[in-house]
Amino acid sequence: MNENPAPEPFRVAALYRFCRLERFEELRAPLAAFCCGHGIKGTLLLAHEGINGTVAGSETAVAELVAYLDAQPELAGIDVKYSQAAEMPFHRMKVRLKREIVTMGVEGIDPLESVGTYVMPSEWNELISDPDTIVIDTRNDYEVALGTFKGAVDPRTATFREFPEWVDGHRGELENRKIAMFCTGGIRCEKATAFVKSLGFDEVFHLKGGILKYLEEVPADRSLWEGECFVFDERVSVTHGLEEGEAELCRACRHPLTPAERASPKFSPGISCDYCHDSRTDADRARYAERQRQVELAARRGREHIGS
């Protein structure tokens, strides 16, 4: 008897490009139509400074999208990192117009004018193992909580807008040091390094392709990465080889949770976790419980519940 073949995994593409994209508003409708017409889901951000986003679809559809973007003169040479997902990791397709494709909120910071020195994943360990190097994780606190590089500084920022203030308050610690920064896919560090260089620091470096490229290329037995890497889709996290991790989201507060955190008595699927239990009311939890009941009911019927 013939067995049904295993379904093909979805291809996930994290992409960005800084450029002078004056016609970004005009690109929104045709880009959305292209993605929807090819069964692609995810989020793409368009701004004067370029494009940023993560999408998923069949291997053929994603390849055609990248070719479509690369054919736009301003976007030629777009930076793309690929991974896989067993199930579609997005609920819908969104193309949004923004002031910035990664929001720092500091006027005049332009990665096209000045940016840190790129360091390839194969050379990253040597740089961050140098005692003269200070290693800074530029991601948000909830991302860092899942994993980071050994010895990295966590600025404990809730949003990237807080990063410039953190740098300003720690300038003394950065003096006469090599400054190595990293983020998920590389885009945040384009602005982070540009900002730090604007303050007069010269030896500023960032990981080319971000954590995703490092986890893809550097074997686990030579890795200085500890934990899992948070990703902004339903996979929640990835680990070495870009395999899907074990983290799950708290559906009440959207904080990523490790298996150990899900063992907490304050964790209830879809209702609460250690991070939000004490800040929610009984009415909140009752509402979340009803939503979770609807999610589970939809799953038993073989349907997708958008609130899941």
From TrEMBL:
Q: Top-down, what is the taxonomic lineage of the species of origin? A: Bacteria, Pseudomonadati, Pseudomonadota, Alphaproteobacteria, Hyphomicrobiales
* PANTHER family for the chain: RHODANESE-LIKE DOMAIN-CONTAINING PROTEIN 7-RELATED, THIOSULFATE SULFURTRANSFERASE/RHODANESE-LIKE DOMAIN-CONTAINING PROTEIN 2
Protein's gene: trhO
Q: Which EC number(s) does UniProt give?
A: 1.14.-.-
Reaction equation(s) it catalyzes: uridine(34) in tRNA + AH2 + O2 = 5-hydroxyuridine(34) in tRNA + A + H2O
Q: Name one Pfam family in it.
A: Rhodanese
Q: Domain named Rhodanese: which ranges?
A: 129-223
- Keywords assigned by UniProt? Oxidoreductase, tRNA processing
Q: Which family does it belong to?
A: Belongs to the TrhO family.
Q: Which InterPro entries match?
A: Rhodanese-like_dom, Rhodanese-like_dom_sf, TrhO, TRHO_N
What protein name does the entry list?
tRNA uridine(34) hydroxylase
Its function, per the record, reads:
Catalyzes oxygen-dependent 5-hydroxyuridine (ho5U) modification at position 34 in tRNAs.
Q: Which NCBIfam families match?
A: PRK00142.1-4
